[in-house]
Amino acid sequence: NAGVTQTPKFQVLKTGQSMTLQCAQDMNHNSMYWYRQDPGMGLRLIYYSASEGTTDKGEVPNGYNVSRLNKREFSLRLESAAPSQTSVYFCASSARTATDTQYFGPGTRLTVL
Amino acid sequence: AQSVAQPEDQVNVAEGNPLTVKCTYSVSGNPYLFWYVQYPNRGLQFLLKYITGDNLVKGSYGFEAEFNKSQTSFHLKKPSALVSDSALYFCAVRDPQGNNRLAFGKGNQVVVIP
User: Residue B100 and residue A45: Cβ atoms within 8 Å?
Assistant: First the structure.
């Protein structure tokens, strides 16, 4: 039981390049989330998917797109990377309801030059 | 909208002394509150949560937290800190009246001094 996995672990991009961050969970969770972590700012929600087939914007969605490929997988895409998107990205999942705990992946450290 | 405040950037404590990490929240209705810990270069690990019931919640690694509705606080505590408790601690709140998203505080760096 791997929990939440993310690929890649590290990535360096040049401004304007695109990439997709992958996330998968094996806990049969319904809800999945993408956060970014920046020093002194805690975690901010980018997008989330309450259930398979639905996605919604979070606090900082600009410059990102997501796809809930199936129940297990939720990807985050940067179409044209900018230095302001340099951050650590975390994927999380939870069962369904508001009382359910979110479980986090190990993170992807992204640097945009 | 819900929000969380963690007023101290860093908490220094001697090994063996009590550890307290402070958290206050703002939310409409009754809150669902969570504490997570992050070790260097790792993802967040769940410690404990308050949903309803007893105001004192016990969690992993000897941590506990006390929900205080009148003070809108949910402070994390450990009676005797270990060097291995040195990490970044996040408080989070979910508003059950609104959406189900978590709002995180900025985090507290805890340094346990041997």
Answer: no
Which residue, among B8, B28, B101, B108, would best test binding to A if mutated, counting the most A CBs under 10 Å from its CB?
B101
3-state helix, strand, coil split of chain B in percent (to 5) is 5, 50, 45
What is the model's pLDDT at position A18?
Answer: 96
Mean confidence (pLDDT) of chain A: 93
pLDDT at B99 over 80: no
- Pick the closest to residue A100 from A51, A62, A55 (CA basis): A51
Residues 13-32 of A with CB under 8 A from B: 31
CA distance A89 to B46: 17
Cis check: omega of the bond before A39, within 30 degrees of 0: no
Residues in chain B: 114
At residue A84, does pLDDT exceed 70?
yes
Average pLDDT over residues A46-65: 92
Q: Are strands A74-78 and A87-94 parallel, antiparallel or unpaired?
A: unpaired
Mean predicted confidence (pLDDT) in A34-46: 91
